[in-house]
Amino acid sequence: MTMSLAVALHPWGRPGHLTSQNNQLYIDGVNTTELIEQYGSPLYVYSEAKLRHNAEDILNNFRRVHANTTVCYASKANANIAVLQVLKDAGLSIEINSSGEFFKAKTAGYSAQDMVFNGVAKLRAELEQVIAEDIKAINVDSVAELERILSVAQALHKKANVTLRIVPEIKGGAIAGWETGTSDSKFGMTREEQLTAIALIIQHPEFLTMTGIHAHIGTQVTDLSTYQKEADFLIAYAKEVSALLPYPLQHINLGGGYPKNYSSSQENWRTVAEHYQKKYRTDVDFDAIAKILIQPITDALGSDIEIIVEPGRSMMSDTSILLSRIECEKQRSAFPVYYLDAGYNILFDIFSGWYFHMVNANRADDTNTKLCRIVGPLCDSSDTYYDIEGEGRVKSLLATEPALSTHHATLEQVLVHQPNLRELPANTQNGDIIALLDTGAYALEMMNDYCGRLSAAAVLTDMQQGSKLIRRRAEPEDLLRFDVF
After folding, report:
1. From CA 381, how far away is CA 377, in angstroms rounded?
2. CA of 43: how far to CAs of 30, 46, 418, in Å?
């Protein structure tokens, strides 16, 4: 291992958001070490200011190009009630994927007319709920699902608003599991399947209205040409579908997948291979997406048709940090190994090898640094803040076929998903608080009780440099909530 496998610690600051005073990390003017003293560790800290900024950013950029744009926040990224209420107050509608998310959205104050319903296997009971309340649109994933929707609508004597999800055959997404725009994924209908669906809709106008078409190409899509391909596809397909319907389409749903940068600066990544930078860094922002995706659709289809987008990660990732305490230290292979009190039970994306930048909240300004490894507390070898699975695959291939050693660099590029060493202050020690940046997306939703570890609490920093609890820390009794004895 060399320095090329570690992202540079500095610069990590974000003016007005992540700063330091007296060598300690602050978020929105709030001392993070004091937050740990007040609320305990591990702790998610969400920023109301950043949530509002992200909502304003996408609304302003997209509506500048197409005034009739509706932003339906993808609530699977974070369905905490306090977070949903902030985004609703900031002007966003919402995308749901289940009756549970429907329930939480309603609890946060959204009406069914503020919602679109996604998913690949919607239950009959879920469809009964949303059709009864006249949801804005059900994004239909298959002909079989459309047949179920028709059956429910007939039983309720209601008309269902449906949007057909098409497979555009466009590759996008930072990793294979985040690609949703091709027939290799489990999502959407082929063109032939959609023709069958449209015929069924036309046959039952009293129970089905086709409100629009929908496509989603993946998440953390950093290649602008991919959005151009999506625009070209949807323009042509909207015209094709419109010729088949006896009424005009009400909207085109472009999905989401818009990328965010991980770590504070491109300069952080100067010490690592280019393929890591392409995954975690991007020049794509809402202004660029508005120009290359929204503008062509407006020019081709006019300004009256509604454009719907479903951003999740881009609304959430940079709105939160995770604070975690170092509980133990070992020495392995010439590097110290630090054990945090948060593993993939708290931040599940580390299980898939995703990178989150780390700052020592107790020594935020220290420039004398060292390289180290970071792991979690779980009784599982995969509970690491480096890609142990990718490293293992490379070693296994080289042991099986030594001739592949000439392709060692290529194997690492393909199989190892993140830089595997960390640069932290040289004086880092047990008891220090490590802040993981950009942890806002999907984290709360994917926490689990593995190894009997209790889920973390979450707080929200307000606009007056204060904080409030928005999710309590789990208690031992919560581990029994589903058991029957």
Report:
1. 10
2. 14, 10, 24
What digits encode the pLDDT tens for the residues 164-198?
A: 999 876 655 444 444 454 555 677 888 889 999 99
Q: How many CA atoms lie within 13 A of 157 on its CB side?
A: 0
The CA-CA-CA angle for residues 474, 72, 196, to 5°, reads 115
Largest CA distance in the chain: 72
CA 483/CA 401 separation, integer angstroms:
48
Across-strand partners of 19?
26
Which of 53, 54, 35, 34 has its CA nearest to residue 45? 35
Do residues 320 and 440 touch, judged by C-beta distance below 8 A? yes
Q: What are the backbone angles phi and psi of residue 446, rounded to the nearest 5°?
A: -105, 5
Is 297 in a helix, a strand, or coil?
A: helix
Residues 6 or more apart in contact with residue 187 via CB below 8 angstroms: 120, 141, 165, 167, 180, 181, 216
DSSP label at residue 472: P
Tell me whether the omega of the peptide bond preceding residue 259 falls within 30 degrees of 0, making it cis.
no
Tokens of 242: 């419109």
Q: Tens digit of pLDDT for each residue in 338-347? A: 999 999 999 9
Q: Which amino acid is at 429?
A: Q
Adjacent-strand bridge partners of 163 = 139, 212
> Which residue bears the tokens 């319907």?
245
Question: Residues 278-289: pLDDT tens digits?
Answer: 888 888 999 999
Measure the CA–CA gap between 64 and 41, rounded to whole angstroms. 42
Structure tokens that stand for 209 in this block? 């209205």
d(CA 76, CA 442): 7
Task: Give the span between the Cα atoms of 338 and 329, in whole angstroms.
Answer: 5
Q: Is the pLDDT of residue 77 over 50?
A: yes
C-beta of residue 282 within 8 angstroms of C-beta of residue 241: no
Cα separation of 139 and 12, whole Å?
40
Name the band, by pLDDT with cuts 50, 70 and 90, for residue 221. Answer: confident
Placement of tokens 């500095």 in the chain: 10
